[in-house]
Predict the structure.
Amino acid sequence: MRVEGTKELDAPRAVVWTVLNDPAQMAALMPGVESFQVSDERHWQAKVKIPLGLGGLKMTIDFEKLEETPPEFASLQAKGTGVGALLNMTTEFRLSEAGEKTSMAWAADVRIAGPVGSMGQRVLQPIVNQQVGNVLGALDAQVQKAKAAGS
Amino acid sequence: MLLREVEYACPDTVEEAIDLLAANDGARALAGGQTLINVMKARAAAPEVLVDLGRLAELRTIGFSSDGMLELGTMVTTAQLVASSEVDVARPVLAEVGATIADQQVRNRGTIGGNVCVNDPTNHFPPLLVALAATFTIRSASGERVVPADEFFLGVYLTAVGPGELLTKVSVPTRKPDSGDAIAGVTIGRHGTYIANATASVADGGVRVALGCVDAVPVRATAMEAALDGDFSESAVRAAAEGLGATLDPPSDVHASADYRRHLAEVSAVRAVLQAAERAKAGVT
Amino acid sequence: MSEPTSSRAVSVEVNGETYELEVPARRLLVHFLRDDLGLTGTHVGCDTGNCGACTVHLDGLAIKSCMMLAVQADGARLTTVEGLAADGELTALQQSFSDHHALQCGYCTPGMLMSATALLAQNPHPSEDEVRVALQGNICRCTGYVNIVDAVVAAGETR
Amino acid sequence: MTTTTAPTTATEQATTLQKGYVGQSVPRKEDRRLVQGQGTFFDDVRRHGMGYVHFVRSPYAHARIVSIDVSEALALEGVYGTITGDEVAIHTDPFFEMSVEPGSRIKDYALAVGKVRHMGEPVAAVCAATRELARDAADLVQVEYEPLDVVVDGEEALKDEVVLHDDAGSNVVWQGVFDWGDVDQALAEADHVVKIKKLHFHRFSSTPLECAGALVEYDKGTGEWTIHCNHQMPGVGAIWMAPALRTGIDRLRFVTQDIGGAFGNKICLHPQFVVLCLLARKLGRPVQWTEWRTDQHTANAHGNERTFLDVEVAVRSDGTMTGFKVKALDDCGAFPRYEPLGCIIWAQVTPGCYAWRNIRVDFTQVCTNKSPVSPNRGYSRMQHLWLTERIVDIVAAELGLDPVEVRKKNYVKAEQMPYETPNGCVYDSGDYARCLDLALELIGHDTIEERRAEAKGRGKLLGLGIGSTLDSGTNNFGQSQLLNPELQFSGNNEAATVKLDIFGEVVVTLGTVPQGQGHETTAAQVVADIIGCTPDQVNVRRGHDTWFNSSAGFSGTYASQFAFTGLGAVKGAAELLRDEMIKLASIVFGVPEDAVELADAQARLKENHEAAIPFMGLGAIVNANNAFLPPDFNPTLNHRYVCRPIFGVVDKEAKKGKLTLTYATQIHACVVEIDEETGEVEIVDYAAVDDCGIRINPQIVEGQVHGATAHAIGAVLHETFAYDEDGTLLTSNFYDYHVPHALDMPTLKTGAIESPSPVAPLGAKGMGEGGGGGIHCVCSAIQDALRPAGGAIVYDSHNPNHRVWEMLRDPEATRANVEVVSK
C-alpha cells in the first residue's frame, strides 16, 4: 500500500532536516513507542505497541537509513516483526525551501504480511492513513519545538 | 481460534467495572464480544484483562431522558433494540438498521455500545448515529461527560472512550414530526457487510448525511448538506452530491477499489437523502 | 471488588444437567462444550464467527458459542443439539430435516437446527423469507439452503 | 415452498427399467444420527494422552528459511515436542511427482525445506497438551526468513524471472499440445473467425464447512499408523504417503466416519498427515490436528486458476461452429501435488456440449507463489466448459445470433448418442436441446422481453443466461499417460462387500468415502432390491476403514463415480450373495435353484410363499449350523466384488481414448437484474435441469444439483481467492471470502429427464459435481443484461459488483478483447 503527500512545515529546511535525521526525535514522532535503541547512525530499533483500540499490536521494528542527500532527501527502511504480522515499510522524503517555510514531499510504501495483513485489509488502510496523520501532526509539533529551541 | 492467556473479571456494578478498567493497564471492557472475541481469536489484539459488563443490568435499559432523548444503555443488544417498542416510537430507523446487522445470533449477543466502541469502518451504527446527531455518555472515576457523535469516533477501533473510562449510554434525539431517516448502501451479499453506505436524516428542512466505509471514522458530507438547502427534489439532491466522491480517500480492497467506493458513496448519499426526504414527507421513518 | 483471574469456577446447566468446572478464562464456550463436556454435536466451521455451526441456545437465545468465553456462561442455561431430542424422539423439526433432505454431510446441521428451533419458538409459522433471515448466520456448503428452508417452513406448517 | 420442482410435463421418465427401491426418494439412513448431533467427525475422536498439533506457518509468499529456533517453544510447560523441515527431510522422501520434466524434478516435502513458496506454508509443527498451548508454543518458534521476489501471476511465472523450485529450474510443471481434427483448415474455411484475446477463470474452492484434520496413532510394536481423518481418497493418499514414510501401504490404516463435506478439497492432505505420522512416532503418543478455516483458505486446496489466451473460433454463416483453438495457462500454485492431472482431466469434455470436430488446445501449467491447488468440484472440466460456454455467448453476441438457437444448432443431438468426441471419449446418452427447452420453460423464457422492459423502468438491466454443462463421471486413470507415458496408472476400480450374518443382518462395507452423498442409503436401496428386503434391513457401515472395509487402489469418493463404480461394486457383491443364498435355499428345500426367490427378507418357493426360510435361517445355517451341507458346497455369505469399469487403453500418440464413461447433463438458465448505478447483480429467476440417467434416489440427486448450483453462484458473484502482489491472500476467512448464505440464494427451480446410461451398471450416471453450470449461466446472463449498456464482454468467471460496475463504466475495455474477421 502506497501513501504519499506533501506537508508544509513552518520552519527553515535545516531545522526540519535535523529533526528528521535525529533518531531520538524521530522516536518521539512514532505512535506507541515503548523503547528505542540506536545501534549506529544508520541503524536503530524501536519496540512499539501500535495502538489499535482493542489492544495494541506489539512489534519490534528495525530501521535502516538507506540513502541521504542532506539537506533535501532521505530514505529509510523499517522492518517490523510481531506475532501475526510482519511490517515492511520504505519511506522517503524530499525537502524543498518555500520561503521561510519548508515543503516536504513524502511517500511510504507499507506492506503488512501475515495473518493480520490478510485479515485486516478493510481496516489497515484507514489505520495507516490515520497513523500517518498522527506522525505528520507530531512532526509539526516537534519541528516547532526545535525551531523554538534553536531561535 | 485459540485465545492468548487473558485475565477475566465480572463486576457487579458500573463503579466496580470502572475501577477495574482504571486499575489494570491493558484492560478492555467486554460487551457482547462479537468483534472483540474474534479479534482475540486471531491474536491480532490481546487485551491483558477483560472486564465483562454482562452482569450490569443498569446498562441494559432502554428509556427516555427528561429532555426526551431516547437512551440506550451500552449493553442493549441489537436484538433487544430491534424488538423495542420505545425505539419503534422514538427512532425506528435504529431498529431498521439493527435488523440488518450480521445475523440473528450476533444480534442476540452484540450490543450497541460494543458496535460503536469497536468502530470498525464497516459497522452500521457509527455512521447512523452521526447522522442522527446522537450523544455518548462516558463515565470514569472522575465523573461523567457527554460527547457528541461528531467527536466520538476517532479511528478504527478507537473512540473518545479513554483508558479507565466506560461508555454507559447512547442518547438519540427522538424523531420530530415531518422528519425522516434512511440508510442506503451496497453490501457483500444480501444483508451482508457494507462496502459503502450513507445515512441521511432530514428534519426541519435540513439534512445530516454521514458516510460509512470510506475512512477510519464516519464522514459527514457537509458540503452536500449545505448545498441542499431544503430542496430535496431528485435533481437537487443529485446536483448536491456531485463531486462528493472526489473529496474522499477511501480504502481499496478485494471488494471495491477506492474509485468504486467513491462512486458508491455518492450514489448511496443520493439514495439515502431521497428516501429520508420521502419519509419526512410521508410522516414515517 | 472481583479481581481479574486467568481461570474461574463455572456453573452451567446444559441440556438440563448442571456442570461445575474450573475453566481457563480464555477458553471459548464451544471448546468447553466439545472438549470439556464431550458434547461434540456442536461444531466448528470457521474461526471468525461467520458459519454458525457452533450455534447453541443461551437462556433460550441462539448464539454462536465460538464468540463467547466459557466463563461468560457462568450461571446460564444452555441447550445444544444433543438436548433437542432428549428422550430419543426426534422433534418435528429434526424429522422435517430428514423428510426434506435438508442435510447432506450433516456438519452444519446442528447449528441450523438450533437457529431454526429458536425461530420456531418465537414465530411458530414463519414464512420463507423469515426463515432465510433467521438462518443467515448459518452457512451450509452442501444444500444451497433449498431443502433446509423447505424443512423449516414445513415444520412450522405442521405445528 | 422454495423448490418449484418442474411441472410434471417437464419431468420425463425415460426409463423402462424396473424400479423397486432404486428410483425412489428413500429417506436417508444417515440422517437420524446427524440431526441429533450424534455423527462422529474426526475432531470428535479422543484418545488418552493425545497431543494437539499446531503448525507454524510462513507469513511470506516466497522466502528462504535462514533459521528455525524451537527452543523457547520446547521450554513451555505442556509442550510435548516439535518438528521442522530439516527433520522431515531426513526421515522422509519427497512425495512422488506425476509430471514429466521439468515438473518431475520438483521436491515436495511435508514441511518447507530450505524455502517457503506460499503464504501459510507449514514450516514447523508443535505438539502440546492442549489446543491453546500448542498455539502458544507455535507463536514462540522463531523463524528467520530472507524474503525473495514473488510471482503470483501465471503469465509472469512463465517468464521464469522468479523461479519457485530451483530443482526444476522453471516454473513450468507441464506443457503439451492437444490437436484433434484440423483446426487450421476449419479456420481457413470459416465464414467468420471470432477472436478472443483473453479469458480468465478465477481461483476459488468449495470450502467444505468441516476443515481438514486427523488424529494419528502409532503402534511401535508393528510400525502401523492409524489415521482417523477426513481424507476423501485414502487409496491414493496412501500411495503418496507410504513411500514418503518409507513404509508399506498396509502400515497406513485410514479410518473415516462422518465427513463434513469435501468436494475434492480433501484429497491432498498427505503433507500434513505425514507430519502427524512423524510426530506420533517421535513423541510416542496420539497426535491430533484440526485445520482452521484460515489455514484451509491459505494453504490447503484451491481450485485451478486458468487463463485462456488467443482463442480463435471458426463459424459458418449459418451459425455452425466448426472448431476452436486456444492457449490454456493453468496456475497450480506453489506445488503440483495432484497435478498435472488437471492438464488432461478437462479433455473428458473437450467439445463441451457441442458437435465441433476441430479443436487445438496448447496447454501449459505453471507454479506461482500461491496456495497449492487440489481437485475442486467440477475439477478441471468446469474451467474448460466455462470456456466453451463463453465462446458460444461471445460468438452469438458478436454475430448477432440468438444464444438459444446457436446452442441448439451446435449441440450434440440426441439421435447422435452415443457420440464419440474428437478425442475419442464417448458421450453415452443425453438430450441437451430438450433439457434446454425445459430450463427455458421453467424461467418463462417467452416473457423475457416484457420483463426486460419492466426492469428498465426500475433502473435495472435484465438479462437471460444459459449454462450448458456436462458432469463427466468415472475417471480413467489411463489419461495420466497422456501427460506422462511412463506412469503406471490406468483404468479404475472400486470395491464393496456384502454379507449375511448369523442373525440375518445384511451388512455392507464400501470402499468409498462418503461426505454427505448418502452412500449408506443408496447402497442399501440397491442391495435391498437385489436380495429382496427393505433398505432398513441393510446395514451399510459408516465411513471407510482401509483394514475392515474392502478397498481397491483407486478407492475414494471423487470424480462423480459412485453411481458407477461404488454402486457397481455393491451390485456385484449383492448379486454374488443373492446367488449363494438361492443356492443354499434350494439345497435346504431340495428344489432346483430356479424354483427359489428372495423376497420379504426370506428365501421362498416361487410357487408356495408359505415355504420360506427367513434371512436369519440362512445366516444361521452357514455361520452356525452347517454340518448337513453337502461337502462340495462351501458358502461364505460374505462377498467382495470389485467393479472395474472397462475403458480400453488410451492412444498416447493421438492423445485419444475413453477418459471417462458417463456424461450427465446439466442445463441451467437464469435471469439476472443489474443495478445500472451500482453494478449490483441480483439473480431473480433460476432453473437447473438435470439428466443423470437413472436416478437411484431422486431427492439425493436433486440435493446435489442444489448444492453444485450454490457453489457456482457463490463462485461467480462472491467467492475468490485474491492475492496482492506480495502473495498475501486477501480472502483468508469467511468475512472476505463470502460464501452464499440463505438470503443470497435465489429460489431454485429444478427439472429432470432420465436418459439411462447404456454403459453403467445401473443405468445411473455419476453426478454431483455439476460442471459449474451456474458460473456459465450467470456469466451469460450478465453479458446479456449489459448488452444495451455498451455491450461489455464478460471475460472473467468472477463478477462481483465492482467488476460489473467497471464493465458498465467502460465496456470498450472489454470489447477490445474481441475481434471478428469475416469473409
User: Anything to note?
Assistant: Chain C has a mean pLDDT of 96.
